[in-house]
Write a structure and sequence with these properties.
alpha/beta; binds S-adenosylmethionine
């Protein structure tokens, strides 16, 4: 079931999400609902992530993402999974990025609580994780068109 429409996070917002998560070289990132793969690509190309996994349900977007990763010869570091994000094992994740809806976050929450290891970080663009207390909330107001709010949660 689709949990959110495709609306990409602007590049500067993606960079802020990964900075807020303190994504480090050698870590693994999951983007749940990866759209056009921009977050997994920046995680590997700019932040030196060891691995990045994008999960995408939409057939066309999955194919486009997979082709892009293959063309860039990044398939050793980036994997795109064609699956419902609610069905994916997240136990390898150091960082999880989300740009879904609050209702989707609510559905995902039990999986995050079940799978994420101590020290893992979740960064959600614009939509809170109901019932969790954010470690940091960052408002991005300048040079972004309209304002964006990032919620960072540390497990
Ligand atoms: C708002 S976009 C975010 C794209 C990207 N994460 C970003 O921030 O630029 C949400 C994406 O989630 C995907 N999506 C929605 N429901 C999903 C589900 N159940 N499983 C996997 N992907 C899903 C949509 O197809 C869409 O590409």
């Amino acid at each position: 079931m689709s949990l959110a429409p495709f609306v990409p996070s602007p590049p500067e917002v993606v960079r802020s999400m990964l900075q807020l998560a303190e994504l480090k070289p050698g870590e693994t990132l999951y983007d749940l609902g990866c759209g056009d793969a921009r977050i997994v690509l920046m995680a590997v190309q700019e932040f030196g992530a060891k691995a990045a996994v994008g999960v995408e349900l939409d057939d066309g977007r999955f194919k486009d993402c997979s082709a892009k990763i293959r063309d860039l010869h990044l398939d050793d570091k980036i994997k795109i999974i064609h699956e419902d994000l609610l069905k994916v094992d997240l136990s390898e994740a150091n960082v999880v990025t989300l740009y879904l809806l609050t209702s989707a976050n609510e559905k995902l929450k039990p999986n995050l609580e079940r799978y994420l290891k101590n020290g893992a970080r979740v960064v959600s663009h614009d939509f809170e994780m109901p019932g969790w207390k954010a470690t940091t909330v960052k408002e991005l107001t300048e040079n972004y068109g309209h304002s964006h709010t990032l919620y960072m949660y540390k497990r």
